[in-house]
User: Fold this.
Amino acid sequence: MAPDLNLLRTFLAVYRSGSFTAAAGLLGLSQPTVTTQIRSLERRTGRELFERLPRGAAPTSVAHDLASRVAAPLDALAAATGQDSAPDEPAAPVHLAGPAELLCTRVLPALAPLAAEGVRLRITPGLTEPLLDELRAGRHDLVIATFRPRGRALTAVPLTDEEFVLVAAPVWADLLGDRVAAEGPAALHAVPLVAYAEDVPMARRYWRHVFGSRLSRPAAVTVPDLRGVLAAVAAGAGFTVLPRYLCAAELASGSLVALHRPDDPPINTAYLVQRPGRPAAPGVTRVRNLLIEAGRSW
Assistant:
C-alpha cells in the first residue's frame, strides 16, 4: 500500500529539519504524532528512515533516496494548493542569522537597499553551531556560518574569506618593534592578550598556522564581541587577533598596528547556509543572491 501524503509531508519535514521536535513545530503537530507517523511510514516501507540521536535524527540512505523522489512533487503540490502565503498577505520576513560583527559591518549595509524594495528582514546574531541547529529547526531562512556544516541536511556556499591579523595599539607596537618577526611569539610574553572567549580560538589558530606552535597562555581580558575586543586593544589593553575586515579602518588610521606580516596569514571562510528542498521564497532568494554578490568584494 502506498503511504498517504500526510506521512510523506511529515517525513520530509523531519528530513529537512533534522529533528522530530523541529518537524512538529514546522507542521503544527505534537512530537508524539510526528513519531507515530514516521514509525507508520517505516512499517509501510519496511525500512528504517532515521537513526534516532541524542540531538535530532540522522537520515539513513533509504531516507535520502526517498527524499530525492518525493521532495519536488510535494513542494509543487504545496505551491499548487496555495499552502504558501495568500496573494493579499504581505511577504513573510526573511530570517537571517550570523556572527554579530559580520552582520553589523558587512551584511546589513549590503542589504539596506532591500528595505525600500519591500523585503522585510529579521536579523539574529549568534554563534554558528546553535544558529545551525535553529536553521535545521526552521527558525531561520539563511545562516552565515564560520565553518562549513557537515551532512546533507544543510547546503552551504562560500561567502567570503577573512584574513586574521595580529594587532596592538601603537604604544605596544613601538615597544615591540620588529621583535615578533625576529623572535616569534616569545616577544609577546609581557603583553596582555585580549580575546573573544576563554579558549582564545582566533589567537590559537594564528599561533598554529603562523608560528607552528601551541598557544597556552590565558587571556587577560575576554569580551564576547569582537567589536569590544577591538575597542579594548585600540585603547591599549594588549594585543589580539582580529579579522582584517573588522579592523581595516583602524589599521589605515594608525590606531592599530599589525605586529606581524606573515607571507601566508591564516584565512577563514564564511559560508551562506540554508536548508535544501522546497524552492525558497522570493525574498530569501533576493537576500541570498545579493549577499553572494556583495561577498565577492568583501
